[in-house]
Predict the structure of NCF1 factor.
Amino acid sequence: MGDAFIRHIELLGYEKRFFPSQHYVYMFLVKWNDLSEKVVYRRFTEIYEFHKMLKEMFPIESGDINIENRIIPHLPAPKWFDGQRSTENRQGTLAEYCYTLVNLPHKISRCLHVVNFFKVRHDDMNPVTDSQIKKPEVFFLPKDSKKNPTDITGPIVLQTYRAIADYEKSSTSEMAVKAGDMVDVVEKSENGWWFCQLKNKRGWVPAAYLEPMDGPDESEEQEPNYAGEAYLVQKSYTAVEEDELTLKEGDTIEVIHKLLDGWWVIRKDETTGYYPSMYLQKAGEVNTSVKSELRNRSAPPRRSTIRNVKSIHKQGRKQISQETYRRNSRKYIQNKRNTQRNSQNKPNVIIEKNEPDDNKPKAQPAVPPRPSKDLILNRCTESTWKKIL
């Protein structure tokens, strides 16, 4: 897989420890390129020494030669005495520092100095403790600042995706990616264009070219809804592939499956096929300038049209065939028609209610016939014989 590098660093909080003396350590969740996740503990004095060494290794990027060239983030020096308040207040700055650090150019973010500092140490797996001393107190970084205005809001953790093929941008608002690039997704639009960032670049990338690191992303897609949602066609489109539909502006259709790549499966009368979601608008929804601007752009490419795909997952995405869509749609439409037909043919006759079972006379059990004298003599005991003799 090549040299190890860090995909993401998330600050979880800090611990107050009492051995060998009272001190504080920060907890970091480090996500590596092999998909492993490790928790490491670092004191702020260690982090600051690491930061000073990083600046010495990259004087241009640290702004020592020209301040305008600085891209390495700032980090305040430790105080003479770091108490719990300063440790807590520093969390926001430290979280932002780690986020910026990982997104620096690879020569910095993937250098041995960074990799070695965040590698798991023996003390991370087996922290020094003493049964006679108090156990460490853990303070997690708050995620919801609305609960307490004084809380430090946690960092915004962006999802990291991997490019499965090369993509060349066709406009200034898009971003080119190479197969294997790790991008952070800032915004996922249902039209199939996702706003991503890579190092210092930002732009729109087709969702079809991206895959999550932990597995195929069909789990993020909605299940088909064969009942359908009513939508209006806002822009005409002429089908290019056999499984696409050609529609005109103003047509009314039903969306039965919303897919991540921005190509939705729709139904027009009894015909199903793919159509660009960015050219559709939900029935009854007010048109906005943002949607109008998006519709002026070209439709994103479909996953099935991408060549030279290089996925890191052995199992591919599950795909529903167009024939399955048609079959289930026909079944739904037929059931809907049968329901309507039955409701129309139902006679308007008032049916009298049956009397409750409590008011009906209950049937009496039949009285069995009396046995004959010969039967009694053959099968009964002597005491019974005497009664009939």
Observations:
- Confidence is low (pLDDT under 50) at residues 144-156.
- The two ends are 107 Å apart (CA to CA).
